[in-house]
Amino acid sequence: MGIGIFDLDYMETLPVTQNGGYTVARQPICDRDLRLCAYEILYRNAPLDEYAQIDNPVQATARVCSAAFFQIGLDQLAGALPVFINMTPEWLLSPDLLPRPQHQVVIEILEDIKPTPVLLDSLKVIRKMGYKLALDDFEPTAENMAFVALVDYIKLDVRACSMEELGARVRKFQGLPLKLLAEKVETWQEFEACKALGFHLFQGYFFARPETMGSGQIQENRTALMRILAVLHQAEPDLAELESYILQDPSLYYLILRRINSAYYSLPREVTSIRQALIYLGTDALKLLVSTLVLSQHSRLSGVLLPLALSRAKMCELIAESLKVPDSESYFTVGLLSLLDALLERPLVDLLESLPLAKPIKQALLEHSGPRGEVLSWVIAYEKADWEMLIKLPLTTEIFVERYIEATEWAENLLVGIKR
């Protein structure tokens, strides 16, 4: 996977304005416990009216660094998490040009780079500077094994060989002081198989698809959760009923009150009940807050998927406003619930049976039909940088760029104080 080659199933695209029509994209990297622990930063050199193309890899890397570290900013892009970035030989031979801060950057050595003596010496310098190194799409050969003693990570493509061959490759590196990363993991079965083989980190689309589990395994927790969500999404939520359900989970009740009383809302007095919160926040704000906290507490994938679900929801709402369609808040609901199956690890059609949603909203979620479903499909296409679809849309590049940045910033601000 060199710079400019994007055959990944899921990518969250962070657009950059005023840069000649290219975008930076990020893909989450998770550990064995499904905790978000890093991002890979990728490059796309295409406006919405052409396909991605890179004629100058050196320039591409320069643009990635400029966009990620200066225009967008690493704080917004990854927070305090490490970022993996592909580097060409020209950059690897010029350590002083590498992006800072060193402790947050993992330099990826592309699969077609040869381990010349000059390059190996430069990599030693890069390590001494405080950077970590990774081998991308690594296929061990007698020649490129010279890299292994210098790196902190080895990335293996699970689609490049059979599981038997993958296991043989993993065994070559067991016992070495490095971490193995399985990339292009698409299913839960592959995730579990890679865990069994001994991988430490995982990258791919598997976390955005629900794992089918037996009904008895999660019935109790999910039933209580769906009761809360059902009340929240009634036309006129019964606050007494909602509070009675939330009181059954004291830790959730505490989190809701702590968040309501935080500096983010700056309310005139301390709030001590859900019904009191309604007076100060209003139904929509309370619905959003409680939904976010519920999902953050009841999903092992919330650290990865909740930021995506929130930014997707907000972008759906903002696109609806750009189109001047009525009821833009229902577009938010569609975006927020579009990842409910992955968050709760149950088929979406089963989950929606428990929610009193209008038929057009359910059709938007299940079939991507109707105006809401169409906007949802646009936003998902933008997240994946699906150029073939995006070039057909009635909105300009600038609108998508602006709405995405606004949605991402809004989601990050909302999540402050929620993550523990």
Automatic annotation (TrEMBL):
Signal peptide: none annotated. SMART domains: EAL (SM00052). Residues 218-403 form the HDOD domain. SUPFAM superfamilies: EAL domain-like, HD-domain/PDEase-like. It comes from the Bacteria. Coiled coil: none annotated. Residues 1-224 form the EAL domain. This is EAL and modified HD-GYP domain-containing signal transduction protein. It comes from Allopseudospirillum japonicum.
